[in-house]
């Protein structure tokens, strides 16, 4: 049994792929990805800082390799991401003197970037996360250089430019904590605003960086139903379930690999996950997939944020140097035993 066959009557099942994986440093990872999943998202390779690091420099090496690999292996590819406040170099927002760009100049720069990146893979990429993480937790628009320099309509322009650059691609809005009722209201307003202006938006991606006790899954379910009611596709785009304690305040971001006291508190399972915690993880995944399967008329894709526990960003976030177990595939690249119950 593979994940893609197990869920074939429900939704597409995907994974994020890293630069190292696609450029051949980890061939066994790529074999597992090809066997288990039917849709890929580049983990970092198409983000602005990677693909367009300097004003006149594009680096398409990893992105090109992934597009080609996906094509050769019948994997649907979702580009990630065209417009985001994070992993975007400072120069994007400045002129040659280091002064902030005008609205018109930044719009032009956004359009050129989208043309270069989305245009390059036109007809070879199934869909794009056009805008990522533009909302605050209370549903208002996040203050970023995009919103400050251009204004709230930067989102409309991003979708219009993406449509022009890749007219056949599906266009998505992607964000985290979209289960929260206030953020849900903001996302629905964003979708409806685009729809009312005749700007194409095809789907919403709910990142799902969950833990054993958060979020309350009924909120996730309510959000799936509410987003689907706007008429667009709903996708779970970045699923992982951390089993580790979530640090608060200044502990967030800390590298704990050399700090024994922090390790005892925040990295409790460096040598393997106790079976009772693994059972809890399985129960949690089962609860998530029960909801997703119940709404498989609305949910078109479920993408995990990584292939296996050996290489997941959660080993380094929200603290660095931990041993987490958030995915369905273990460090030996085997499906976890609870997967057959999902
Ligand atoms: C993460 C990657 O997994 C890390 O390798 C990188 O250091 C930071 O970004 N939301 C997103 C993803 O939309 O792009 C992020 O990916 C995780 C959170």
What does this structure look like?
It is a single chain. This protein has about 350 residues and is of the alpha/beta class. The chain is built from twelve helices and eight strands. The chain has helices at about 5, 20, 25-35, 50, 60-70, 105-120, 145-150, 155-165, 180-195, 215-230, 260-265, 275-295, and strands at about 10-15, 40, 75-85, 125-130, 170-175, 205-210, 235-240, 300-305. Helix 9 (about 180-195) links the parallel strand 5 and strand 6. The longest helix has 20 residues, at about 275-295. The two termini are about 10 Å apart. Bound molecules: (3S,4R)-3-hydroxy-2-oxopiperidin-4-yl beta-D-xylopyranoside (XIL). The site of (3S,4R)-3-hydroxy-2-oxopiperidin-4-yl beta-D-xylopyranoside has 6 residues, from loops.
Briefly, what is this?
The chain is an alpha/beta fold and 342 residues long. It is 36% helix and 16% strand.
